[in-house]
Amino acid sequence: MAKEKSKFKGSGAYIAAAILVAVMYIVNAILVDRIYWNNSNVSQTTSRVMNSLNKINGQLSEINNDAIAIAAGIKTDMESITKDTNARYGNIIDAEHAFEATEGLSDEAMRRYNYAKNLITSYKQKLDAMGTSAVTTGNYQEMGYILKQDIYPVQVTASEMLTSTIDIVSADTGKIMKKNTIQSYILMTMMLVVAILGEIAVWLFARKAKKARLELEEREKSLAEVDAKLKTTRQKASDLAVINVLTGMKNRYALDNDINDRLESGRFQIAVFDMDNFRSINDTYGYDFGDEYLAAVAEKLKEEFSEVAEIYNITGNEFCFVFNKNISESQAMGIAQNIQRVMSSPYEVLNLAVQLPCSGAVYHYLPGDCLNVNSLLVKLDTAMRNAKMNGGNMISTVMNI
After folding, report:
1. Whole-model pTM?
2. pLDDT band at residue 133, thresholds of 50, 70 and 90?
């Protein structure tokens, strides 16, 4: 009777250990899944916010270009220009509504955005009132003076405020991602401690349950399998912080980690590309279709250029290429032209053939050119925006200072 009681007691200890490990695995899986979806939601929200701000900025630039064309006497069909301008202001209002519907934005981001919004309203009022008599009489010199002195500075300031809002949203997203990364590391540490304690408990139980040795061996085998699953789960949690969920490429934060230490003393070739007028894909076919298109482009880029460069999907449809150390400046430009060709090629998505031109910028980085990765990307993005403003479908180079 005493032997049966002892055997039962030992079995109960193993059951308790098994329950502890099972609970540990379930809690770990739930928390990792929560971190995963939180990162995914943050990424999607940031993408929507960036699309809204870029749409506002793009439409404002197009309106300003028309105003410049009127003042220069290049465009004279005022009825057509007025119609286009009203449509673009409608697009700006739609993008403003989309941005303002986003929850969780910081006060600083909203302050910059509201300042930009007020400037856009002032810009429209000034543009509507621009030299009415000068337009009627065709006095382009007077219109040019009004545009240069009173209106264009307002558009430039509004555009700068929108860019500043984008930077703030990016920084806020970085803080959230960093917080999630810290939580994942804390989670991994807690799970490791619990796993160690579980192993110790099993070892102690095993010493007291000599008659249950065979059962103990089976239990150790099960624990080894659970430990392997835990390692896989921990790796997944760690990867979530630096991988773009949609394309599977490294993201903006991985780029920071990879090249930040090289800025002071390193030299390398780096380039950025994105599709011209990508928002037309989302506007025409929907965001799900746009996501499929981006995934197809990303897969082709990895297939063609992963051997010559580290590729990052840093925002939306923008890709960054950090070329290998053995790639020269001239070789980097040649590869960049091939990247433009691949990204501009037609892709079949959901049985539809889609093709967009793309623009990019290439930078022969020299030691100490930039203080941080953010300023490096600002230079590249500025060069790329200049390419787009000059008609797009072209590659600019960043000049070293």
Report:
1. 0.45
2. very low
